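Next up, sample data.

:::
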Amino acid sequence: MPVKTDAKSGRKYLEARYQPPVSAYSKWPGLPKRITRRFPVGFETEAERWLNEAETAIRMDTWQPPRIEEDSRKAEAVTFAQYSAAYLQEHRKANGEPIAPTTRQKYEQYLRDDLLPILGDMTMAAIGPKDIQRWADSMKVGKAGEGASIKRHVWELLSAIFKEACSKPLDEDGTTLLQNNPVLLKVDRPDSNRAYGDVSMDELNTLAEAMPGRFSLVLYLVGVLSLRPGEAYALQRRDIELAEDGSGGVVHVTKSAKGIMKNGHKVMEVGSTKTKGSVRDLELPPFLIPHIRHHLDTYVEDRPNAWLFTGERTRGLVFDQSVRNAWYRARKAVPRLEQRRLRLYDLRHRALTEVAKHTNSIKAVMAQGGHTQVSTAMHYQHVTESERGKILAGIEAEGEAAEHKESPQHDTESGRQDVQELEALASALESMDLEVRAQVLKGLPSVRRNEVLACFSKQVQAETMQELLKGI
């Protein structure tokens, strides 16, 4: 512990120092030859204690560089409230872009309402699985599933925060704030029985007629072409190309509009689409051309960058809430849908369900909806009431036909055996590794392969189709 003099201030100080263990250099190649720490003159006891602690750690083979010990102490000092606030400011999406302002505002609400009251004052190091369970117990789910969706969203944020705390390096050695992730429980995504796609074309026309004229086209863009509402609001005149003979056209989807809070006021902001795959060109069916021409001629200024949808008084980019308010009033024109509290966004489900009825290609559905994941595209395919009716009628017809057969016993037993074999094969494949499962399915006849896929659970079905599509 030599006494030295600071070159700048001229003050004397103690320099305590020691050599790290030789074995540490292979684990931390950048270690200096000596670890040093300054102490004021007169603090010899503190300096000796520091050296003794280092010597003990070296002899017990538990020594770590001081900077790693400091990182560990951060987890014992920073609270969940502090870390989560920094997470919202610094977190980036997988492509390196910052999260959208609307997403950040949504996360802030989740923290404020559901997470901080339970975990906010606890340090990150102190939070364990029991505390996570305590949070989960605080968010009750009703018998009819009320609150299940929001609980899933909050859990996704909570999981992402602790995943980053366990994986984000704090220094060049790769030290992370936490070594173990306390979020061990999983909150499943709730299944919805709502008939999102069950809106007939006649009902869609009725809804569009009940909307204010300047907004009615939104329903066709969402309910027929499968645009997200925000993508429709961000359209400009130059994004619409119509064939001169009225035979069709193209809509260029390149951006999206969102309502965000700025300085205590809500404003509409136009930015990028939800994903890169959401940038797409959609062909217009001929029956929509008159609707679009009428809208362009009546409500859109004659310049390329003019917005398709504007406020009646402001003539600026329409507020999303204004369209939603008009939608709530128009929805009363179809009592069945009013009773279901159908959302404007649900018309997108309607559009993609119709697309799925007209094609066997999941890639075509993904392209239409601007999806990059098979599981997301499948989420938008729903069985409508008319389809259920067809199924029921088919079952009834099959049953009546069976009653009139002279010897139905053999056919019944044969059919039952085939179903049992199919279910057994599907069960066996579900237990296999994904790659092996896909290889087996590829070797099956296409009809049989589709029958087996239909027997899988939704999650297994989605991941299997994703694997089957690789290389196509």
